[in-house]
Amino acid sequence: MEKWKVLNSEYTYKSPFGNLRKDTCEMSDGTVIEDYYVNEYADWVNAVVLTKDKKIVLVKQYRHPGNGFYLEVPAGKIEEGESYEEAIRREVCEETGYISEQKLILLGEFMVNPATQTNKVISYLMTDAVHMHEQNLDETEVLDVKHYPFESIEAMIRNKEITQLFTVTAYHLAKNYLSKS
Q1: Coil, helix or strand for 69?
Q2: How many beta carbons lie within 10 A of that of residue 151, not counting itself?
Q3: For the chain, what is the mean pLDDT?
Q4: What is the mean pLDDT of residues 75-90?
Q5: Does domain 44-180 have CATH number 3.40.50.300?
Q6: How confident is the model at residue 1 (pLDDT cuts 50, 70, 90)?
Q7: What is the mean pLDDT of the segment spanning 23-41?
Q8: CA gap 148, 162 in Å, rounded
Q9: What is the pTM of this model?
Q10: Residue 13 host element (H or E)
Q11: By CB neighbour count within 10 A (0-12 exposed, 13-18 middle, 19+ buried), where does 87 fall?
Q12: Which sequence spans correspond to the domains of the chain?
């Protein structure tokens, strides 16, 4: 098995949210795929944020493509010149007002959907978070900050109160990490 060879690549659409690229690729057996569409997105970061009293900080927001309200861990995309850690600290502070002086714990780095997308999500655990700031949201963000006992999240996932995949994944990674520390 070998990587495909890109014979041609052109953008069909570009926007601040992401780009759509059309590639012509040749497989290792010589088969040519004329129209392979690739969604280019910036990498995303998210964090399981735990307060000093072991509550998890989630945000509830409307998601238009999902046509509903979702409970999620704080998250966002990397801005130019930021490290992943700087990005998640900024996103957590902007969305929730929480900060932490503790070292962030990297839970994992995963491709979102390598069949069609170029980006990955980098998940962290932030511990001993304290509320120090007011929210500083983008003009299109409306977020309610929620707090739950960490132990209640698994039941919330089972009961479909939490259905956002990156939140479910980050929670399970954090739970696994905490069970071994």
Answers
A1: strand
A2: 10
A3: 96
A4: 95
A5: no
A6: confident
A7: 97
A8: 12
A9: 0.93
A10: strand 5-15
A11: buried
A12: 5-40, 44-180
Which tokens belong to 106?
A: 């990297």
Tokens of 117: 């997308």
Tokens coding 143: 């977020």
User: What does the chain come to in residues?
Assistant: 181
Place of tokens 């503790």: 102
Side chain identity, residue 26: E
Paired residues of 10 in beta bridges: 22
Q: How many CA atoms lie within 13 A of 109 on its CB side?
A: 6
Decide the pairing of beta strands 120-131 and 44-51: parallel
pLDDT tens-place string over residues 38-50: 999 999 999 999 9
- Rounded Cα–Cα distance for residues 32 and 134 (Å): 54
Per-residue pLDDT, 139: 87
Show the beta-strand stretches assigned E in 16-67: 18-26, 32-40, 44-51, 55-63
